[in-house]
Model the fold of this input.
Amino acid sequence: MLLKNKFKLATAIGIVLSVLSLLVHLFLANYSAGGITKYSMHMDDVLPFGSRPRPRRLWGPLCTLDHLHPYAKPRKNYPAPANHNGFIYAKIYGGFEKIQSSICDLVAVARLLNATLVIPEIQATTRAKGISSKFKSFSYLYDEEHFIAALSDDVPIVRGLPKDLREARKKIKFPTVSPRNTATSEYYTTDVLPRLVKSKVIGIIINGGQCLQSILPASLEELQRLRCRVAFHALKFRPEIRSLGSQIVGRLRASGRPYLAYHPGLLRDTLAFHGCAELFQDIHTELIQYRRSQMIKRGTVKEQLSVDSVSIKINGSCPLMPEEVGILLQALGYPSTTIIYLAGSETFGGQRVLIPLRAMYANLVDRTSLCSQRELSDLVGPEAPLSSDMPHPPPPKSEKELIEEWKKAGPRPRPQPPPPARPFYAHEKEGWYGWIGENDTEPDPSPVEFRRQAHRLLWDALDYFVSVQADAFFPGFHNDGSGWPDYSSLIMGHRLYQTPSGITYRPDRKTVATLFENVSDHLYHPPRNWTMAARQHLNNSAGIEGIVMSAMMSKPVSFLAHPSPECTCRTPKSPAIQPVKDKHGWLLFGGEEDCPDWMVRSLAMVSTKNNEPQSEDYEGELTEDDSSQDTQQESDRRDSNKSSEQDEEMDPDD
Done:
């Protein structure tokens, strides 16, 4: 009994001593820390929401370009055509960027020849069977009524040829021409105009995305402004595209944050043209090489089939991979919670090539993640069903046929027949890669593929609208040197015209490739001097230096990629800028005319209403801030706060 009492006493003393020890430790911790502090979560830890200030260094506007404004109206004597020489009808082949450029050239050619333009035919929609009957060819993308009305003072436009001429066209009684991308104005006035006057109708077939040279003589400067009026004012997307595009922009900015649009430029044709197959693996390399061999047979590519993709990339002729773009954005100081909109209907390589960028920037979204399937279906419109191109099982045989086969089967006993072949599943047959497991040659496009090509026009138009409205734009592959208009350059040209002071990066891929060569051993943790060098280059590319360098490459190929200074004006009191010309004497930047008085007064009123202080000056010298360290800390915090939805496994063959 005594032993039990001693044991209870010892236990009670131990408990009392433990409580006293705990109280002492709490008192010491409170004394040394200055009191218990409450934890407050940073808004940056919340991925979808939260508002932040708009640092001018990242989101603009640029002080050096805020004196430029869009102005594409005629400025000299611009009389209406005196006589009518005939009708021009056109067929346009290619994707969205080729259609956009070709229509602008066609209007300029019709004005040059004093001809009436028939609404152009977009072949990607006319070849697609069963697409919505609500939209026919041109109206599949654009507002036809607005197009005709907006250009009524420039070029007469009709929906179709008169009935008698339409019948003659069906009988192929009118001549057609297929001009080159670099066709001069003299070619049209000396070769095409006499044939037009003689036959009263002529057809133009456009395959390369253009039918008139980009840079015209000074005497035809008004034709350049006409191109701007067509591209940036007359070519309005149909209301359904504009409405859905506005909803996407609203959803991107619903959290109160700006967003950056990014177009990877990873297109199979472009990669094959430049020989960038080794940047990919497995089936993608084989697909690029097959397309390159087709280009060599057609004479589009003059080089060998197998080339060193690494040396081509170092030379700047291959696109920036999404992983590299993510590292560059981190070097610029964009936080890991930045909203990035992925533009473009095709990203060759699928979701696999986007995994590194999505790991750095979890808020990487596209139209499919911002729109419901119903909204996208409404944009496409009602469509007729297509017969499936999947192999069908053989029809069942009758009893009589089975008996005849049994009689002709030969002597018995016979070996067992081989097991039936495994059926091909739908996901193995659909898409541009389904054929490669069965054949050595790519089959002709099926009706389903033609329909997908028409749908890509809609997705490109939708993403074009969203990218032009973005607070910042980063191209993965512009000025590719192929001689064709490219999607990113058209967006950059539209942004240069509409908002010259907005943030539009124009990276020199050769310089960027050199930067990555110097830091290849520690890509994700580069030294500070590398970060500052990359930031300096990209910041310069968004300003006057980048505009001039980009103009030297893009303007000879596509005027719409650099519509300045012909389609811009400057405020009278802005500081004078020395005009910049290339070796041929073409004006690249500067020398803009003064804006008219009515525009200056309107701009002054708008500036007074929207004069908001900026939190950071973009034009100041690069400070030795801790943005790189902050970005790394935000990335570490984000990794611990990712939602389970971001961890879903993606199909590598998507």
